[in-house]
Please model this.
Amino acid sequence: MKGRLVNLARLGGGQFGRTDINRLWLNRLKLMGATFRTRSESERLACIQACARDLLSHFRAGGLRLPIDRTFSLDAIADAYAYLARSEHMGKVVLTAD
Model:
């Protein structure tokens, strides 16, 4: 087996359970992580432009979708914040302006 475990934009801090490094090695997996916090403004802009160039057409065509966990009306913004604070979501939490 070969593959990658990629962690992007971690919002809950740097610790999220335990990882058995031997399983990564035995399965020839790569562990990769990235954050925008350590990038310069020009690097962030270049990443955004590259994503737009490479991915927007796929989103428009329906080939890629963002995982939406739950939607809240704008009137329920306090409920949405509480839901996020409990870390129960797995995907995007969206506010809608009805």
